[in-house]
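Protocol step 4 of 6: record predicted structures for both targets in the notebook before any analysis. Target 1:
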Amino acid sequence: MEVKKTLLAGALTFLAVAASSQIATAQHAAVTGDFLQTLPKDALLVSNLHTKAIYDPNEKKVGKVEDLLLDRSGNVEAVIISVGGFLGIGDKEVAVPFEAIKATEKDSKIWLTINATKDALKSAPGVSFDKVEGVWIVKDK
C-alpha cells in the first residue's frame, strides 16, 4: 500500500506540473527561465480530482477517483475508478478514458460526472495494481 501511495503522490505531482505547463503554454503565458509569471485561472487541480466522488447523469454516486494514469508526455490517459463496496471492502477498480470524466462546478465545489451507471461500471473489466511492477493492469476474467 505504501508503494502505491508513493507512486500516486509522484504521479499526482508530475500531473500537476505537466498540466500547469501544458495549459500555460497553450495560453502563451510569460515564462522566465523555469518560472511561470502567470498561472491559468481555470486549471483543474489534481487535488480536486483524487478521491473525489463521481456521479452518473442522475446525480447518483457511482464511485470515486482512485488514481490517474499519465502517458510519458504528461497527458492524463485514464482514470481508475473505485466502484461498489463499503469502506473499501468489496470494491472494484475499473479504468475509463480521462475524457469520460466531466468536471463542473456545483455549490462552489468540483463535481465529477460520468455518463455511466454504477451497474455498467461494476460489469466493466476490473483492474488491479501490480505492486512489484508499480503499474495498473487489467485483470484476467
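Target 2:
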Amino acid sequence: MTQTLTSNYLDLFLRDVPLLDVRAPVEFAQGAFPNAHNLPLLTDTERHEVGLRYNEEGQPAAIELGHALVGGTTREARLQSWLRWCERHPDGQLYCFRGGMRSGTVQEWLAQAGRPIPRIRGGYKAMRRFLLDSLEQTSAALPLLLLSGRSGTGKTRVIEAIDHAVDLEGLARHRGSAFGRRPGGQPTQPDFENRLAISLLRLHALQETGGRRPVVVEDESKLVGHRLVPPSLYLRMKASPRVFIEEPLESRVQVTLDDYVSGPLAEYIQFHGEAEALDRLGAELLASLDRIRNRLGDARHQELRQALQSALDEQARSGAVEAHRGWIRALLAEYYDPLYDHALKRQGDIGAPLFVGSRADVTAFLRDAVRRPVEPGR
C-alpha cells in the first residue's frame, strides 16, 4: 500500500497544519512544535527497552520486541487514540524523530483502519533543521525596529498593540528581569527557537505580499530568563534603529504594579488554584527580591523585603494592592534605573534614536512605521 510522504515544511508552519507526533513523551518534552500533539507509539519505558535490544541484538530483534510490546489490546487502544485525533484533525500530518520506522508503522496501521494520513519526510529532525536554517535567513532579511525604554514603561504593551512585531518575552514565557518568572516555567530552548522561527517565517511571508515592512522587537539582553536569543537575531537587533519610550516614574510604578502583582495573580490561580495563588505569587516576589540582595546591599534589601511582605499581608487581608507601590517605586529608582543607565553607557555611541516619546506616542509612531515599506538596501 503506497503511503503519502510530504516535505513542504514551510507550508506546514505557515498554515499551522495539525501535527501528530508519535515520538516518546521524553522526546516531545525536550523539543516540539506549537501545532503538535503527542500520541506516542512507544512509552518512554518501551522505547528504552527497544533501544537496549537494538544495541545488544540489532534491528530485527528490536523490531520484534516493539511489536510484542505494542500488540493486542495495547495496539488497539493506541490505534483508537490516533483515529480519534485524525477525526478531529482531518488535515493533519504525522511524524516521528526521523520520519522512519515509528511514523511509518503508525501510518500503515491507520491506513489499514481506513484513515490514511500523510507522513512528513525526515520527521522532527528535518523540520527542526529547517526552522534553525530559516532563523538565520529571516534574521538577516527582516528589517527591524528596536523598542527601548526603562523598566515599567510598558514596552510589552506596545509590542502587543502592533501587528508586525515579535514578542520575545511572550515566546520565552518570561518578563525579562529578576522578577520575570511566570508560573509553569519557560519552554525548552528548542521550543523557544521553534516558536520564534515560526513567528519570523510568518512575518517574512507577509513581506513578500506587502513589501519589506519593519518588524518591531523589544530591546532584550542575550538571555530572556534562561532562554538564549539566537545570536544572528541578537546581533541584528543591536544594530537596528531604536525607538525609545519615556514615561514618568509614577506611570512606570502603575505599569509594574499591573504587570508583576495584579496581572500575574490570575495566572497563578490558573496554575495553582485560588486558595494558593497569592501565597505562590508572594513567595516568588520575595524570592526575586532575594536574588538581587547583593546589588541592593543587606540593609536596603531587608527594608524592601519588609515593605513587600507588609504589602502582601495587606493584599491577603483586604485584596488591596496599593501598598505595593512603595517597594516598586524604590526598586525602579534605586535598582532598575541605574542598571539601565549603565547598560546605555556600556553600549557607547548607538546613534540618535529614530523617535522618542510617551508610550502612546511611540505606539502611534510604530503603527505608522510598520505600514510603510522599507526602502531597498535598508
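Step 5 preliminary note on target 2. The chain has a mean pLDDT of 93. The chain has two domains: 5-130, 142-378.
Proceed to step 6 after PI sign-off.
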